[in-house]
Amino acid sequence: TKKVWYEFSYPSQRNSYKSGSFLGRLGGRYRYTEERMHPGESLYAIGMFMSVGGGAESFNTDAEVREVLALWKKNRTGLLKHFDANGDGELDVQEWEAVRKAAYERVRREQSKRSVEPPTHLMKKPQYDNRPYLLSVYPQYELIKRYKLKAGGCLAGFFVAGSAAVWMATLRLI
Description:
By secondary structure, the chain is an alpha+beta fold. The chain is 49% helix and 16% strand. The chain has helices at residues 22-27, 61-74, 76-83, 93-116, 140-173, and strands spanning 2-7, 30-35, 44-46, 48-52, 120-124, 134-136. Strands 1-2 form a two-stranded antiparallel sheet. Helix 2 (61-74) packs across helix 4 (93-116). The longest helix has 34 residues, at 140-173. The radius of gyration is 30 Å and the shape is elongated. The two termini are 55 Å apart. The mean pLDDT is 85. InterPro entries: EF_Hand_1_Ca_BS, EF_hand_dom. Residues 79-106 form the EF-hand domain.
């Protein structure tokens, strides 16, 4: 559905869902246009479809372990409290290996939880600029008709403008 309203303020968070006031419709400074798709409407989509998460996700365990370790390193007192076995205030090689093992186990637990979740499906703009991205509630045949009419109008306008330019140039030369 398409909704158009006029207001004097920019941007207006307060009235963005309303149709605008009477004075706003008479000459508001800003015109707002909102086009929405509602649940249950048919959807025509062209773009890059991908699934994220769930069993289809490939995990980068090493990178996730590095992230967990970087997070833990920010809290040095907590790290020492949990992993400094000899209490000397420093982590030796064996204690650091215990930290790495705990981070690895935590990452694997989180990955196993994420792998049983259902995947999230996304439609996004393709990575390459020459590929189309289109979301519409209109069926394909209607979109084709609309874009053919626009293309034909642009082509006719091009020829009319070109003819007018040639005609004006010939008048000037005479």
